[in-house]
Amino acid sequence: MKKIMIAGFETARNKYDDYIETFRLLGAEAFLSLEPEKLKQADGLVLPGSNQDMNPRLWGEKDQCSHDINDALDEAQWRLMDLAAGRTRGASEPWPMPVLGICRGMQFINVYFGGTLIQDLSCSREHKATVPEHYHEVLYGESSRLRPLFGASSEVNTRHHQGVGIIGDGLQAEAVWSDGEDGVVEAVSHRTLPVVGLQWHPEKMYLHGGEEHRADAEKLLRWWLGML
Questions:
Q1: Topology (CATH) of 3-225
Q2: Domain segments of the chain: what residues?
Q3: What does the pLDDT look like over 116-160, one tens digit per residue?
C-alpha cells in the first residue's frame, strides 16, 4: 500500500480528515506530519489547503491582505520540498518524490520555484468559499497534461482569495479559469519533476460532490497516485 505524507498540522480551522479518508478509499495510507524524518516513510507528499496564507516576503512583497500568516508552516513545508525535489538528501529513495499541492499547496509550489502570488484576486468573489460549495469551469489547453483526463474543460470547486501571479521557474500552467476579462491559473505542473499543483480541492469533491464531480476527483487523484 502506498503511503502519503500530508504536510500540515491540525488547528481549529484546519482539519485533514478528508485527505486521509479520500486516500484510504483510493487504496493508499495517508498520515499527517511536518517532520522531515517522517518523509522516509512516504511514497508521495501532499501540500494541503489551509486558511493560513503564505508570508508575502517569500516572493519579495509586503503583506497587504493575507490571512493568518504562519511562518513556521512555510519553513516546515520548504524543508520538505527541498527533500522531495532532491535539493537536499536524507529522506527516501528514489529521488525526486511525487508532490501534489492543493489550493494553498499549489500556491506554495509556485512560490517555492520562484513565482509570485496575487494577494487578493480582483475576481475573488468568483473563487472564495461559499455554502453550499461553489463550482466553476476550468479550461485545459491543447498541451495540458490534464486534457487527456477531462478534455477541454471540467467543473471544480473553489475556496481561495489568492492566486498565482508570475509562474515559477520550470512550471507550466495546466488549467485556467476565465470570465472573458479576468483569468486565474488553476493548475500547474513542473516540466521535469513529478510535481503537480491544483487550486481546487479534489478530496472534498470526492467525498462531498455530486456523481460527476466525484468521478472527476477520483480520476485525477488516481492519475497522481500512478506517479508513486
A1: Rossmann fold (3.40.50)
A2: 3-225
A3: 999 877 655 554 544 467 798 999 999 999 999 999 999 999 875
